[in-house]
Known about the structure:
- The chain is an alpha/beta fold.
- It has two domains: about 5-220 and about 420-435, Aldehyde Dehydrogenase, Chain A, domain 1, CATH 3.40.605; about 225-410, Aldehyde Dehydrogenase, Chain A, domain 2 (3-Layer(aba) Sandwich), CATH 3.40.309.10.
- About 45% of the residues lie in helices and about 20% in strands.
- A hairpin with a 2-residue loop joins strand 11 and strand 12 (about 325).
- Helix 3 runs antiparallel to helix 5, helix 6 packs across helix 15 and helix 10 crosses helix 11 (about 265-280).
- About 45% of the residues are buried.
- The mean pLDDT is about 95.
- Nicotinamide-adenine-dinucleotide binds near residues 202, 217 and 345.
- The site of nicotinamide-adenine-dinucleotide (NAD) has 27 residues, from helix 8 and helix 9.
Amino acid sequence: MDSARVSDVINAAFAAQRAKVEERRLNFGYAERRAALENLSRAIRENEAAIFAALKSDFGKPEAEVVLSEILPVTQEIRHTLRNLRRWMRPKRVSPSLVTLGTSARIVLQPRGVCLLIAPWNYPFNLALQPLVSCLAAGNSAIVKPSEMTPATSALIARLIGETFPADLVTVIEGGKDVSQALLALPFDHIFFTGSPAVGKIVMEAASKHLTSVTLELGGKSPTIVGPGADIDLAAKWIAFGKFINAGQTCIAPDHLFVHASVKDRFLSALRARIAHAYGSGATSPHLAKIVNDQHARRVSGLLDDAKTKGAKVLAGGGVEGRAIEPTLIEAVTPEMEIDREEIFGPILPVITYDDIEPVLARINARPKPLSLYIFDRDKARVDHILKATSSGGVGVNLTVLHYSHAGLPFGGVNNSGIGASHGNNGFRAFSHERAVLQNRFSALPLVFPPYEGMAKRLIDLARRILG
Length: 468
Ligand code: NAD
């Protein structure tokens, strides 16, 4: 499609949704939102085989990982939302303050309107549709822009949404950066973006032109600390899982490890054993996803080559066969290496040994706030100290990545790793405008209206004495 045609399609899709905003505000209530979510759930169930096939074609994802990380997060989000939606939608009463005596106050959650959802490629099904659940639950319409890097999944999402929803409620517009930027030029009521911090800045800049609110789910380098009191086998199991699921292409994957010197040897041998048990040896395992495309495979193996050239030592793995990269442990990483600066987003794990936690905390705090931080230690005081001394979007203690799956926890970053939060009630609120409604019953405030003389003045003086 040429760019004039693309912008016609985009403008028409936006105009169709925009034209229905007022009607939807009146008529897209609890029952209609429920029905929309039930339809989405049914469409996912009916298309399970097609979802497996699309993700296999895009990056050889094992079916088990498709279930765990693509399908279940969306269906669980729907289930949790259906269970709680009525309560979330209910206006919340707020007690009056002294000044507002004689009034009643409530917070009413309203749909924002027409929302833009831009998704990344690493969990291309989940990260396009999970935000859609919150978006619909809050009563909005959506234009969804899946990632161009996973074309089979993008086409599947377009078909599935096209068969499930009228285009003036949800529509999918496929394409890459240019399509994304054409969409970003429109005055959406909310933009929910999942992707890299670099593109997040472009999104926020575009949103500022219309003062559109944003939720930015970004990434970064999530540090993991294995302390002197760690349960070694447990740490090895969780770190291997969190790091190598999706071949390391996970926004909340442990990016690099700090391991206390006293447990280093035991931990590394447990981690090597765990990797061998889960993935065997070599780069190709039926339990390990591939890197999404050749360009990214070159980027990830380039990080490894650069590190090796500059003196890093490979402790395990290191094999590369096209888009298959073996789970790899390296050490002796220095600040000159690209791998120390860039989000790795692949199955390579740098291991840094430490004796004193303070320089580790200083190093974490000197860098942009990460999306996740993981701590393995059974000593409560040490864990609490790390929690207090650092900041990150979320934290896993004695586990990795699972905090993503708790619908009651806000999922999101902080500054460079994101703005706002998603999942469950937090996702619902991200797509809602919290409208303040104060209703007069018998407010006494007119007693102090001007002219400020006599009774009005005496009351203001009294108020100053009591409240001041
Ligand atoms: P990306 O930022 O390159 O792309 C994300 C989306 O933005 C895609 O749909 C793409 O088409 C679009 N896009 C790309 N360049 C653009 C531009 N210049 N202008 C406008 N739109 C543009 O991210 P990615 O490579 O798809 O995904 C990987 C990144 O996403 C990593 O940094 C990862 O940590 C992060 N991520 C974060 C989360 C989270 O929930 N916080 C989840 C998954 C991935």
